[in-house]
User: Fold Olfactory receptor C family, v3 from Oryzias latipes.
Amino acid sequence: MFVFAMLNRFDPRAFRWALTMKLAVEEINQSTQLLANYTLGYKIFDSCAYPLTGQRAAVAVLNGLSEEESPTCSDASPLLAVIGESGSAQSIVVSRILQILSHLFDEKVKAIAQLLVRFNWTWVGVVRGDHEYGRFALQGLLRELKGTKVCVAYQEMIPLLYNRQKALEIMQVMKSSLAKVVVVFSAEGEMTPFLRDYMIQNITGIQWVASEAWVTASVFTGSEYYPFLGGTIGFGIRKGHISRLSDYLKTVSPENYPNNPLVKELWEALYGCSPYAPSASQLPLCTGQEILLVQHSAYMNTSSPRVAYNVYKAVYAVAHSLHNLLLCKPGVGPFENNSCAQKVKFKIAGEEVNFDLKGDSVPYYDIINWQKGTSGNIELVNVGLFDGTKAAGEELVIYEDKITWAGHQREVPVSVCSASCPPGSRKAVRRGEPICCFDCIPCDSGKISNETNSVECIFCPEDFWSNEDRTICIPKKVEFLAYDSLGIALTVISVVGACLTIGVFLVFFHHRNTAVVRVNNSELSFFILFALTFCFLCCLVFIGEPTRWSCMLRHTAFSITFSLCISCILAKTLVVLAAFTATRPGDNIMKWLGPKHQRVIIFSCTMVQVIICAAWLIDASPYPSRNTKYERSKIILECSVGSSLAFWCVLGYIGLQACLCFVLAFLARKLPGNFNEAKFITFSILIFCAVWLAFIPAYISSPGIYADAVESFAILASSFGLLFCLFAPKCYIILLKPEKNTKQHLMGKEK
Assistant:
C-alpha cells in the first residue's frame, strides 16, 4: 500500500512518488535474486493532503483491498506493509491507526533544536499548521529545547481552513517580536496562501527555519520569492539516485494509459491542455507541441530526488525484509527464542541502508539553504548534514562559509530577547519572563566575570581587586605614606624644622655669654633645642614602607623625644617660678633647683616615658599590618600600635607633663621683668595642647595613610609651636636688638 497526498488539486510531484513506488515494485518482481518466485502487489490511496481522508484510507487497509469493498471493520487485510503517508500530518494519523510508532519524527525535531543552539538563536518564533504534525512537532521542539539557552518567543497556528485575518495577525506578531528566526512546521499546501499574504505585507528580515515538509518544495523557488524567503535553511530528506526513474516517467502518457484518469490529470497539470476531447476542465486539446509548465518543471527533474528516493528505499526495505523472513527457518532464527523476524540491511545506489534497534532507519538529512541562482530564482544548496550515526552532539555538520542568510547576508543573523551580557556583567532574569530575557547587571567592585553571559560574578582573591571593566582580577594597589607629594612635603618641613632648630642652637652657642642666654638657663635651652631637633627628625620615620623596626621606632622615638622636651620645659618653668618667688631672706628653694637637680628632674620625667615604651615593646610592640577594611580595593600598609592601651598611655603621659607645665607657667605669667619667659612657656604649651587635642579626633577618623600624615603633622606643628614661642623672642633680641641684650633691661631695672 502507498498513501500519498495530492493537496486540493492534482500534484504532479506526489504522483511522481507513487510512480516511483510502482517502478520499485516492478524492478523487484523482475529480480531473480530478491523474492524469486514471489510477486509483490500494491494499492495506492490518495489522502488529498487531509488527515481525515488519510484516516479513512488506513481503516480501509485494515479491512480490505479498497474503501468501497470494506466500509466497516470486518475482515483482516492481506497487506503486509504500508509506505507513506507523504505528508507528516497524515502520517501521524495513519501510524496511530496502524499502531506503528516511529522515532524518526523525534530525530527531525532534534536536528532543528541542534541547529538553533548551534547558531545561538536564543529567541525564536514557531509557526505551525493546525494538525497533528504541527502539534507533535511543537511539543517535540519544546522538549528538545529544555536545558538549552533557546526560548520560544511565540507559538502561532495557521488555520487548517486558511483565514487571511488570522494570518495577518500572525504576521503582526512576527513583525513586532524581537525573534528574527521563525521555525515553521507546516506543509507547502498551508504555506502557499500564507506566504502569498506575507509577500503582500512586504515583510523582510525574517530568517526561516523550514521543516522537511516544505524545505525542498519547488513551488517556492520562483524569483519573486527570494526577497522574502532567501536564506531559508532547513532539513531535507537525503537525496539519492534512481537510475531508471527518468525513462520510466517518460513512459507515463495518455497513449500508454488511456483509461487512467490520473494520467489525464497529470497531462493537464504539466502542459495546460487536455489529451482527450471533450474535457470537463475546459482546457484546449493537446497538439503534442506543448512545453512543460515552469511551475511543474521539477516533475521531470530526477537528477537528485529526495522524497522519491525515500519511497524507492522503503519499497526495497519491505522486499528485503520479506526475503529474509522467507529464508529464515523456524527454531534457528537470529532473535529471541531463535525466532524469525525482519532483520534488514542492504545496499542501494551505493548507499548502505540499515535500521536501529527500534526499527527505524538511521536518520540522515541534508541541510538545505535557499540561495539566489544566476537567473534570480531560488536554488536549493546543500550546506551540511545531520548524521544520526554520529555520537550525541556530533550529528550536525554545517559548512557555514557556504550559507547565505536572510537579506543576502553572510553573517549569522542575531535572534535574541536580550543582547549578550559582556564580560564584566552578569545576567539577571526578568521577573515573569523566560530565562532568555534578562538584564545585564555590572559586577560589583571586587567581583569579575570574564565570560559572556555569566550567570554570576565571582569574588577576586584576597590580595586582588577587579579592574575598572570588572573583567580580570588585578593585584590590589599597595599604599603607604611614601615619598610622593605628601611625603616629600612632610620631609621638607621636617628637615627645615630640624635645620632651624640647629640654627637657633648655633646662635645660642655663639652668644652663650650674653644676658639673654645666661638669664634663661642656657643648659636647659640647649637640652630643649636638642630634643626639638629629634622631634622634627622623628617625623621622617613615619614616611616610607612600614617595617617592624620602623613601626617600633616611630612611636617610641617621638614619645621619648617629646617627653624629654616637655621635661626640660617643666624644669625651666620650675626654675623661673622659684627664682621670682624666693623673695624671703633665708629661703633656700633655689638650692633644690640647681643644675644637678634640674638634670634629675629631666631624667626622672623622661625615664617614666622610657619605662612605658619598654613595657609596650616587650608586651605588644607595634608591627606592620595590611589594612584592607577601610578601602577594599587597596592594601594600606600601616603600623598597628600593637597595644592601644600602651599607645594612649604614652600620649597621656605627654599630655600630663604638658598640663603641669601649663599650670606652672600660668602661675608665673605676671612675674616682673621685661623678659618674662613664663609667658612664652604658657603660649608654647597652650599651642602644644591645642595641636594634640585636635590630633585625637583627626587621628581616629583619618583613613589609611592619612592617619600617619596626621600624626606627622601634629609632631611638626607642636614642634614648631615650641620652637617659635620659646626661642623666637630670644633670637629677635640677640640678632636684631643687641642693645637690649643686657641684664638690667631683662630684669626691668633699666632707668
User: Anything to note?
Assistant: The radius of gyration is 52 Å. The chain has 20 helices and 22 strands.
